[in-house]
Design brief:
This protein is of the alpha/beta class and 217 residues long. The protein has a single domain, classed as HUPs (Rossmann fold). It contains five helices and twelve strands. A seven-stranded parallel β-sheet has the order 7-11-6-1-4-5-12, sandwiched between helices. A three-stranded antiparallel β-sheet has the order 8-9-10. The radius of gyration is 17 Å and the shape is globular. The termini are far apart.
Length: 217
């Protein structure tokens, strides 16, 4: 059986981004119903110093993939790393920020692990009513009590649609930044660090970053 609510935490310049902390907060709310641990997946290079912050904002465990190829975002190494995490840990739910990074990597990961993906969600909750359980079961869900309902705007924002991923795991969504709330920081919280190695090859780094230029806002 799939286990855990996994959040892919973005970092830029070696610092965790707010959208990841927002998603960890939302994962802790889902945890109240699902009763699974919240895992933060942190990809980067020499970034272990950011791990404690993820515990403070609600992560029970942190899966750290540390490799020079992950210092800056590049599509293929990040896609491979997240895909390998899924194959190893078999998450029930996996969340990404609907940022430029999340929108690029999430659909590629979903394709590789052959699961569904709901993009640009603004609401997440577990199925709770008998009607919701019955709908999930009718669509092939083996355990409707572990079904995630994902809400997003549709038809140009005129209606809100609720979608399901009943037959495949993990249940995946990208979530708009700024929609979810971080939980209050608790510096006494501790967690478990899991260092996970991915067998990268030279072929995985299919671009060369010559320079990173920050634009003026």
């Amino acid at each position: 059986m799939s286990n855990g609510i996994f959040v892919v935490v973005e970092q830029r310049n070696g610092k965790v981004q707010n959208v990841g902390l927002e998603l960890i907060g939302e994962a802790t709310r889902l945890k109240a119903d699902l009763k699974d641990d919240v895992y933060a997946v942190l990809l980067g290079s020499e970034i272990e110093g950011e791990v404690e912050k993820l515990y403070h904002y609600g992560a029970d465990k942190v899966v750290l993939v540390d490799h020079p190829y992950l210092k800056e975002y590049v599509t293929e190494p990040y896609t491979k790393a997240v895909t390998e995490v899924i194959k190893k840990f078999d998450p029930e739910i996996m969340l990404f920020g609907a940022s430029s990074i999340g929108r690029d990597v999430a659909p590629r990961v979903a394709s590789r692990v052959r699961t569904g993906l709901v993009a640009d969600t603004t609401g997440l909750r577990m199925a709770k009513t008998q009607e919701e359980y019955d709908k999930e079961a009718a669509m092939g869900c083996a355990d409707p009590t572990r079904a995630l309902l994902m809400t997003r705007p549709a038809f140009g924002g005129n209606i809100m649609a609720t979608l399901m991923c009943p037959r495949t795991k993990p249940q995946m969504a990208t979530v708009r930044p700024g929609v979810m709330k971080r939980i209050d920081k608790d510096e006494t919280r501790k967690g478990e660090l899991i260092k996970f190695d991915v067998d990268f090859t030279e072929a995985d780094m299919n671009v060369e970053i010559l320079e990173v230029v920050k634009s003026d806002k």
